[in-house]
């Protein structure tokens, strides 16, 4: 049995689903890049575990769980296990991230994203990057319900200020073994409802290749065409990283140049006014003693 303190670590401000949301659809977006599974966690348990936790809070309508990220190097057995647990797998498009995909989905006005709708975001992005999505939920009213999950080490700033999301924020979970991924204590406790929505496994790199069959999706990931697109994708990521590194190094050089100029001015000031400037003393200028 979990103690009170452990339960508070597991979730915060979690509210039971309203009668309308209890039977409406729920879509879970899991950022696999920023929120990997804990070491040794069985991937086939992810779907049933999330499903069970949502049902415990009264969300009993159709559930879609989307695992999205850069799939390069991810073992196919791992992806297959996720799929067997009812997780739909998506490869990120070039130059995109999960939050961009969420924003596009919300603004697409597709029927599946119309209210009433609950959406859970499992991500470690900084709270500022959630602002766009939070504002969409706020502007669309209480029939849009936002749920959050994140690693304990990257806990978001409070997304429920007094004037925002009071009516359409369902709660927060921690993405770890004590939180959303906790062991229920019984191998048969977690279950996964069969309806996973109309989502298919999808590759955003290859003209949005999609398939309901994981075997077909795996065959696509092994294809030469996908390998070429993945090479472009990795080259893009490497280029972006190098640009960030260059900007950082440039900023460091500018800072060093600025500090050197400040130090030169300080020494000029010390010399001009005949003040002491000893490295053995503190940097506070002192009047020169009279002879």
UniProtKB/TrEMBL annotation:
GO terms for cellular component: peroxisome. It comes from the Eukaryota. GO terms for biological process: regulation of gene expression. InterPro entries: Marf1. CDD domains: PIN_limkain_b1_N_like. This is NYN domain-containing protein. It comes from Brassica campestris.
């Amino acid at each position: 049995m979990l103690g009170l303190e452990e339960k508070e670590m597991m979730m915060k401000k979690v509210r039971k689903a309203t009668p309308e949301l209890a039977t409406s659809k729920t879509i879970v977006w899991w950022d696999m890049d920023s929120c990997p599974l804990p070491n040794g966690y069985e991937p086939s348990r992810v779907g049933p575990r999330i499903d069970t936790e949502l049902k415990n809070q009264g969300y009993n309508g159709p559930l879609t769980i989307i695992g999205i990220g850069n799939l390069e190097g991810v073992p196919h057995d791992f992806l297959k296990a996720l799929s067997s647990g009812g997780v739909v797998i998506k490869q990120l498009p070039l130059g995109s991230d999960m939050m961009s995909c969420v924003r596009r989905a919300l603004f697409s006005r597709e029927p599946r994203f119309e209210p009433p709708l609950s959406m859970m975001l499992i991500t470690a992005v900084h709270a500022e990057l959630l602002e766009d999505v939070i504002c969409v939920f706020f502007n669309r009213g209480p029939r849009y319900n936002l749920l959050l999950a994140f690693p304990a080490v990257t806990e978001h700033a409070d997304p429920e200020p007094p004037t925002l999301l009071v009516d359409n924020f369902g709660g927060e979970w921690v993405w770890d073994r004590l939180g959303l991924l906790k062991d229920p204590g019984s191998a048969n406790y977690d279950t996964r409802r069969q309806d996973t929505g109309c989502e298919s496994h999808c590759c955003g790199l290859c003209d949005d290749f999609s398939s309901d069959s994981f075997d077909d999706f795996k065959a696509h990931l092994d294809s030469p065409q996908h390998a070429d697109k993945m090479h472009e994708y990795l080259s893009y990521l490497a280029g972006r990283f190098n640009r960030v590194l260059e900007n950082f190094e440039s900023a460091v050089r500018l800072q060093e140049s600025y500090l050197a100029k400040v130090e030169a001015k300080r020494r000029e000031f010390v010399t001009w006014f005949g003040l002491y400037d000893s490295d053995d003393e503190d940097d506070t200028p002192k009047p020169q003693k009279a002879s």
